[in-house]
Amino acid sequence: MQKFTFDRRITGLFSEQQNLFAYEQEHLLHFINRTFSIENFEKQVRDKKSEFTEEKRQTLVSELRKQYASLPAAKNVAENIDFLEKEHTFTITTGHQLSLFTGPVFFVYKILHVIRLCEELNQNYDAYRFVPVFWMASEDHDLEEVRSTDVFGKTLSWETDQQGPVGRMSTEGMDVLKSAVRSFFEGREASDVDEILESYSGKTQAEAMLRLVHCLFGRYGLICLDGDNRAFKKSFIPYMERELKDSFSHDNVINTNRKLEKEGLKIQVNPREINLFSLEPNERSRILKEKDGFFVKGHGVLSLEQTLQLLHEHPESFSPNVVLRPLYQESILPNVCYVGGVGELSYWLQLKGVFEAVNSSYPLIQARTSVLYLDATTLKKLEKANLQLEDLFQDKEVLKRDKLKEQSGDDLNFTTLDALVQQLKQELVSKVNGVDSGLQKYAEAEVVKLDKQLEGIREKLTRTMKQRHENQMNTIDHLFLKLFPDGVMQERALNIFSMCPDGRVHDRISQLHSLIDPFDSDLVILLD
Prior knowledge:
This protein has helices at about 15-25, 40-50, 55-70, 75-85, 105-125, 145, 175-185, 195-200, 205-215, 230-235, 235-245, 250-260, 305-315, 325-330, 345-350, 350-355, 375-385, 395-410, 415-435, 440-485, 505-515; strands at about 1-5, 90-95, 130-135, 150, 155, 225, 275-280, 285, 290, 295, 300, 320, 335-340, 365, 370-375, 525. The protein is an alpha/beta fold. The protein is elongated, with a radius of gyration of 31 Å.
């Protein structure tokens, strides 16, 4: 596989704000703690070490060991969990919703980015250990966003009427989808697909996703963490208590939003007065602030004292929303850096004040690797259309017009030929008249035939050129549809299975792992 890189800023695929995350974080220093750099990890480690207690480490390690007790053994994962007991060990984290069969392939890219970043940091820092973590957003309840995925151009959708947190949903109905995926790989002797699909099992979606991620990335030492956990929620009680008493997150985000707007930066999320949900077996509902307390679904209106009592007795029934989830994550992990998509990082810009309000260190943030993948068929189309990789960053219609103009050129310009033919006809008639003036009509008739023959040639050339141009235009349309389906980057639609027609998924992931450079912010283009 060949690798090329392009500065994101020249591609037109990313907004100005998104490019700041990748290349110029110094322009964001009002909204982040430090810019992302290998040198700043030392400072970030010192901050985190001073606040992350031994008790938190023991809770984390204890819950991880329980979580992994029923999973297939993975030496690197076990070692990393052991390392987390030690005060010199820190995490690099990314996260995502529980997408069907990992969903879009950037799910894989962001995990591999975190793994590679830890590998690089471990080579550069002898005094510390860095462990990759994948945070499962199992409490998210947006089923529509994760219930479908595209495999080899076919959309597979999980048909279920379940509601509430996706992670708590049963896996009923998955067998039909597994069979559909298997059908793409029949007869592939070296296929990993059966093993991977078998790993995607369990009573709940969270359990199935944990097993799937472990199957795909356990060999790299990746730790997968489910935040829907009573012990973790119990440790987060002081922050949720503060939220119920003071609405501290709302006020701080509103203040930051005003500053962002003044600088022309995008507002990704708007805070609620209370940024907590209540969790029931089949429901995740907003906790609403009322005049006399809070409305909590299933309990009605509770006073502050009653709500706090419920929080202490059943912390697992409370769930932070998008505003408080990062703080929750950072409170239970010795985390020093969060890696996310450029769109995802926009809401992190809104949260520094939330962290400062509770004296919690705000992590380094980094934009994940972004990849454009061209398989052999797509590469042939690129060559057939006589396109360069740079052409993919142009507006499609502008590119088509430029190519038509470039290809047509003088090919259909008959001006010179017409002048030569006119001269030939005049000389021919003159020559015939010079021999025998009685043959003039004969000569004129032959000239008419010549005109018709030349016109036939002209029409044939014109049809051929138009057909050639039409083929090229269709090829450009097909290329852009493949690489930018529905106008979005391919990585947001393509599934990892679609990159593995031979079924050798582990080999493909290993190949991608070797090609990702976590300190290179450029767009990566891979040619199969």
